[in-house]
Amino acid sequence: MSYTDPESEPPQQRRSWRVPSVVAGGALVVGGLVGWGVYAAGGGAAESGGAAKPVVRSSPSVAPSADDKAAAPLKGKVVVIDPGHNVDNFRHTAEINRQVDVGNGRKECDTTGTSTNDGYAEARFTLDVAHRLRALLERQGATVRLTHDEKGPDWGPCVDERAEIGNKAHADAAISIHADGAPVGDRGFHVILPGAVHAGGADTRPIVGPSRDLGERVASDFRRVTGEPPSNYIGHGTALDTRTDLGGLNLSTVPKVFIECGNMRDGTDAALLTSGSWRQKAAQGMSEGIVSFLRES
Fold first, then answer.
1. Using CB atoms within 10 A of its CB, is residue 122 exposed (0-12), middle (13-18) or buried (19+)?
2. Which of 179, 185, 230 has the alpha carbon at shortest distance from 3?
3. Could you tell me which InterPro entries the record lists for this protein (predicted)?
């Protein structure tokens, strides 16, 4: 996300930002190849925009055996990955600016997200990492669904729809992937946790505790695997931030967190975010945190 993203930035710091068409057309969350396979640890994937309606595969109807659990420890678990934004959102400003209900207020359906100074779009970054994360989790036996992919609608989905995808899938864990657009010098990652919201159609109270557990595990493993420091501008060095203004969290009925992997506008972080080998580490760190959470839950 970014300070220019209503699903991420503090309200007092929001400002308008649109990725230029040359950026969005040439660079996700989020691009990618049709039919992604398992990534090599240092491999960079081809990147493309777009969004598809993924299909949730049915969970096993028979409880896994001890041998099954050893070979596929996440068999029977469902994970929803939400790649932030959509690379073609900038072509649909009327649609993404439409206000939607987030329980305790109304917000834009979505935004374009941010980009590096060289034009690498946040939406491309998030989709690439989402594909890598999906491959890692599926290797462990999990059923994984993305909120959107490279085929299908070329904008959105709206933040309320993203939450509903996780809810309908009865996800055991959900994660929304982003990168920030803060000022130069602000760097590091942070994980956003849902605060207690009970208003309108939102009631996060049942998921606050498990979401914090998920977020703490993801933050710990992400930091260890990537070497990225905790944010120096949000979270007071804890790499954790609690929010009650994000529709993707407010409307979730399953354990869910957001992760801001770094600041795309800072040169040091941008060099990492644009590296295929680092993005693989980012996916690995998220995967290890999610696996740890699911094996304990």
1. buried
2. 179
3. MurNAc-LAA_cat, N-acetylmuramoyl_amidase_3
Question: CB–CB of 265/116 below 8 Å?
Answer: yes
Which among 117, 123, 170 is positioned nearest to 150, based on CA atoms?
A: 123
Q: Is the pTM of this model over 0.85?
A: no
Residues 63, 134: Cα–Cα separation, whole Å: 23
Which of the listed CATH numbers 3.40.50.10490, 2.170.120.30, 3.40.630.40, 3.40.190.120 matches domain 78-294? 3.40.630.40
* Inter-residue contact 174 to 251 (CB < 8 Å): no
Structure-token match 């969005």, residue found: 24
Confidence of residue 154 (pLDDT cuts 50, 70, 90): confident
The residues assigned a catalytic role are 260
Which residue in this structure is represented by tokens 């949000």? 234
For the stretch 191-218, pLDDT in tens is: 999 999 999 999 999 999 999 999 999 9
CA distance 99 to 199: 17
Task: Identify the burial level of 57 via C-beta atoms within 10 angstroms of its C-beta, where 0-12 means exposed, 13-18 middle and 19 or more buried.
Answer: exposed
